[in-house]
Amino acid sequence: MSATLRHYVPWFLWLSLTAAIALSLFHAMNADGSAEVFLPGHSTDGHYQIEMACTACHDNEAKDGIFTSEGVTNKACNACHGEDLEKFSDSHPTRKFKNPENAVFLQHVDAMRCTACHTEHRLDRTRPMGVTIPENFCAHCHEVTLENRESHRDLPFNTCATAGCHNYHDNVALAPSFMTKRYGQPDHITGATVVETDALVRWLEEGNERRQPLTLASADAPSEHCQDPKILNDWHSDAHSAAGVNCMDCHSTSEDPSSWVAKPDHTSCQTCHEAEVTTFLKGKHGMRLAHSGIGAMIVGEARLPMKSSAAHESLSCSSCHSPHNYDRFYASHQACIQCHDDEHTRNYEKSSHYQLWQAELAGGPVGSGVSCATCHMPREEHGNGVLVNHNQNANLTPNEKMLQSVCMTCHGMEFGLSALADRELIEKNFHGTPSQKHPGMDWAVKDALADEDEEVRAIHDYLQSLPQKPTHGPRNPLPEPSDPSP
Amino acid sequence: MKTPVIPKKATLATTVGFASLVTLISCGEKESAATGDGGYGADQVAEAIYNVLASDRKVYAQKIVNRLAKDEKVIAAHEEWKENKALLLPAQMFREGAEEVDSIEDKEIDFTYSLQSTWPLNYENAKKKTPKVEEGLLAVSTKESEFYGKKWTGEETINGVDYFVGIYPDRAVAPACWTCHNEHENRKEDYPEFKKGDVMGGIVIRIPK
């Protein structure tokens, strides 16, 4: 080889290697699923499903297509989380910090930017709730509170948000007056039931016209698409036909009412079930459908343990609600266990909640059973009726949000609070009683007694006079802080 | 003290959406005419805002909280108002309004306001007091001060931004005010026993220069 040729060999190799890398990256950008190579790191449990819909969060960089940590605005966060933050009375909205006198606090915690505390793609330092700053962050502003509150004086600041008491955003449970009003409640409230749903009532109250129930003969699907008598019979015995919802109401589009849509998607359901679908699209089951280009969630891609038999299933409304044989009892339990395979789920059928559910199915009082959906898709009373919140995550992070919306329907507040803080009991699907008594109620009562609250004093004295104290477990000074590992 | 001049076109009505501002606009115009520069001074704007805030605060304390919670006992006023289905305390009502104003983007006239006191019950809120505010609060709420019960103005810089600061007296206007403060669990031993008409703190209004 001549000296000249030897001179060019390294250059040739370098150029070839560069071209190969460039080509493979170009291919990755355009191939389905391969673009993950550009992720700086995987996302939190809350966002991993949509991590390839980059502009869902990097809204400020959608035009440029170059994504940095600076390109995620509060607006993008609020697009998905804003409504729930308002619903649960966000304790620290950014508007609380706009006054320049908050500089004394903002120098420690930049409360004006969601991403200051929730940095994505950094699983190595992500704590529960997607928090990426040290867990004693409350101290910077609230140190003075601990100094002045007897019951809290010796508590470490890393326990505020990790012991099931306070949260930065959602504090719906632990106002002292709210607690003391529920002091002395029994662990179990006899005869408790959840409210009944009323989708049709809400539909009519929204100004829609009541339709007559439909007969088998009135099914309006084109004959070539209506060959299966089972489908017809299912539909005819279903709530949809009773409410006058015919085949073409779902199997067509509003743009072309005569066209046949073989498999209607959630947008078809949304026509009548607006609130249900809107909440579904916010939760883990439907969030991918809310973003274009990434398709529905596939069960096998979940981070929670799922059954291998369901791994290839994709999630839509009809995953849980068989479209021609709508059965909300099936959707409340059986639909869940066709996919979910974690310890909490597996233990459900050993639990007292399951026994109550079986009793309701066997003809017990309506709303007396406790299914998966009773807790994870609670029925919420709104101005114009009762709605099933289909965002299964809405009352789960943190789980204290369940206390009012779910637990306290059937349990005393103190019992519910203790149960929600007991990780082991949660794994057992609440089969048993809390092993530790949450200290919150005792503290609130102690403070109320010190303030000479006569009502609390009366309840306290009455409870003390009982031969058997209404306690559900040993008293423990404070639950251990959570494991900071992701 | 030279204060920033707010262009006249930036009417106060766009700044604060309270109907009662109509009267204040005319008040502002009268004072502005005296400056002869066609605009309003920051101190004039701040005083106009104060007049609205103090009026609304007085109405809420007297005709809502004191009447419904103390006299007629129709509904309670409670710090944990949501949990207790109760009225907001007057200080909370004031702060919620301030936060609503703060959430308005691109205000034609930027300003912020808050309630502070030399004798605070909310310790976190008290930590926000700047040295200038401490000085102004003492001036408007110390009986021996020449500014007692009057406005006090100054200037300060926060995070590199210069502000006009106006501090105005916040008086006890209804029994609900002074009984709650005098009996509050966070009250320190050296706090004064308030009575009707006493200055309990100050309304702090900042306008960037």
Task: Describe the structure concisely for a colleague.
The complex is a heterodimer of chains A (486) and B (209). Chain A has helices at residues 3-30, 54-57, 74-87, 103-106, 114-117, 139-148, 176-180, 199-205, 229-236, 239-242, 247-250, 266-270, 274-282, 317-320, 328-337, 343-346, 352-361, 372-376, 402-405, 413-420, 423-427, 440-450, 454-465; strands spanning 379-382, 385-388.
Work out the helix count of chain B. 7
End-to-end separation of chain A: 57 Å
How would you sum up the major sheet of chain B? Answer: 4 strands, antiparallel
**Shape, per Cα inertia axes of chain A:** globular
Task: Output the strand order for the largest sheet of chain B.
Answer: 3-6-5-4
Which percent bin holds the helix content of chain B?
40-55%
Pattern of helices and strands of chain A? HHHHHHHHHHHHHHHHHHEEHHHHH
Order of helices and strands of chain B: EHHEHHEHHEEHE
Q: Helical stretch count of chain A? A: 23
Distance between the termini of chain B: 13 Å
Order of strands across the main sheet of chain A: 1-2
Count of β-strands of chain A? 2
Oligomer: heterodimer
Number of strands of chain B: 6
Instruction: Using the alpha-carbon principal axes, give the shape of chain B.
Output: globular
